[in-house]
Amino acid sequence: LEERIRISAEVLDLHPPGHPERAGSLENVAWALGKRYARLDSEYDLEGCVRLRIEVLELHPPGHSQRASSLENLAWALDKQFSRFGSEEDLDQCIRLRTEVLELRPVGHAQRADSLEKLAGSLDCRYDRSRSGYDLNRCIRLRTEVLELQPPGHPQRASLLEKLAKGLDSRYGRSHSLGYLNKCIRLRTEVLELHPPGHSRRDISLEK
């Protein structure tokens, strides 16, 4: 990894601003710094990853074929930076970027479910801090669509059911509407069915 960072940085030096290969070289260094951050938890690596990916995004304006991937890559780095430092500005920017990614992945797109869930996760995180009803309702809408895209038999269905149930439980706590509570119970009943006796998460599903 250290050797990859060294070589990628040297390649980047050979691709100054205006070079047609600069965006790719920037991302190669950013990717390697992100990997090293995941291993060593280095603030320097994370800040470098964010800085480089901001420049990559500037080189991929609206309409560019690599815009969606550049948006998501920067959102990932900002999400990690928020987790480390707790900056609401980083989280807000992450949500804006992931909202644009979702707009670039309309109904029928192969990566729409992934984009829906990542945006929902960021909104859920902001709701935990701000208690914004707007964020909660939007998160519920997104995860409802994710669940529709990943029907019975999908390996992640139990996790998705529980995440949506958590949102509905919070919504019930705010509105005291039995409709939200009843749907939450139905979802958690299905989770329990997916965690039969002997499953490592059965006790958690029973408790919820």
Helix share of residues? over 70%
Low-confidence stretches: none
Number of strands: 0
Give the amount of beta strand, in percent: under 5%
Q: What is the CA-CA span between the terminal residues?
A: 42 Å
Q: Helix/strand-derived class?
A: mainly alpha
**Backbone shape:** elongated
Topology order in helix (H) and strand (E) letters: HHHHHHHHHH
* Main pleated sheet: none
What count of helical segments does DSSP give? Answer: 10
Instruction: Compute the average pLDDT.
Output: 96
* Rg on CA atoms, Å: 20 Å
Describe, in short, the structure shown.
This protein has helices spanning 2-13, 22-40, 43-58, 67-85, 88-103, 112-130, 133-149, 157-175, 178-194, 202-207.
What do these coordinates show?
This protein is an all-alpha fold and 208 residues long. It is 77% helix and 0% strand. It is built from ten helices and no strands. Helix 1 runs antiparallel to helix 2, helix 5 (88-103) packs antiparallel against helix 6 (112-130) and helix 8 (157-175) packs antiparallel against helix 9.
